[in-house]
Amino acid sequence: MDVGQADAILIKQGASAMLVDAGNNADAEFVVQYIKDQGVTQLDYVIGTHPHEDHIGGLDAVIREFQIGKIIMPKAVATTKTYEDVLVAIQQKGLKITAPVAGTEYGFGAAAFTVLAPNSASYEGLNNHSVVIRMIYGKTSFLLTGDAEAISEKEILDKGFTLKSDVLKISHHGSVTSTTAEFLDAVDPRYAVISVGEGNSYGHPSPSVIKRLQDRGIQVYRTDENGTVIAVSDGAAITFAVQSTPTPDVPVPSAPAQPAVPPKNGGVVIQSVDLVNEVVTLKNTSSEDVDLSGWVLLSVKGNQSFVFPQGTIIKAGATLTMASGDAAGDIRWTNKNIWNNDGDPAQLIDARGNVVSEY
Ligand SMILES: [Zn+2]
């Protein structure tokens, strides 16, 4: 989720859902609404990677709002009101904190994750207490690092855990204190995601970390530039979509305006993709209008995505054309050419992140 200079990561697998961090205190409402909008009512796991506000700020609101399975938080304590609020919410719900033990594996639907850190009982700063997990689903893998720094990265390497992952959530918002070359080489990701606030006062992400990623040809997604970053794994391959965050000065209906019932994917399909003329035709094969707000059309090869704006409706039985390049259509995507003429699969992804049609 794009929570600015903070982390909040929702993971879904089948009927299971989990949350890793919940943004700053001020992000609580957004995070809760985002999770609700995905049709989630229960979080099987909630991980507060470490007790800094930019990771656990919204956690008390999340704990109060949803049915919670297991809460995993490091033994490190903070003396802040934010941390106290989280403890109170946990207590009021009659929940217990599970301390992370490196090497422990948890099942998560058809996926599973392993705790890789922390590996020591005490550190100088809170960041190195971060709970680090590696999630695997089929042949795909994701490494989530919280704000773990070089010390913890070294400990993880020394422990000999399997680190190779397709997607790396870059540690500590891209700070130079993390993502050492040794760690990065061991993870050897194809994609990196940096959760970072635009114009933040820390200078995150560090240019040297960005260079390290670029030198290795790793594709980078950043919440400050891309908004919310959505990675979808089918167990064999991972596709990405982004959902730009409305800037505060533009009046855009906020998330609560969305219908409480999950949007219907009722028969909307990609009818054709004209690669040469840059026109995609969607068809609503059902007898009801379908709201496409927040849906995504993805060019799989180029990994380019178009997010349908709020209020986009495809009428019952109607078609809708999406134009790029020089083409004309009902919706203009961009002046750039999107589709690779040598073949380029297209995916239509609904607002809940489900691929509803492929072409
Ligand atoms: Zn942080």
From TrEMBL:
**GO terms assigned for molecular function:** hydrolase activity
Q: Which UniProt keywords apply?
A: Hydrolase
Against InterPro entries, the record matches this protein to:
ComA-like_MBL (IPR035681), Competence_DNA_uptake (IPR052159), Lamin_tail_dom (IPR001322), Lamin_tail_dom_sf (IPR036415), Metallo-B-lactamas (IPR001279), RibonucZ/Hydroxyglut_hydro (IPR036866)
LTD domain location, by residue? 255-359
Q: Which SUPFAM superfamilies match?
A: Lamin A/C globular tail domain (SSF74853), Metallo-hydrolase/oxidoreductase (SSF56281)
Protein name per its UniProtKB record: Metal-dependent hydrolase, beta-lactamase superfamily II
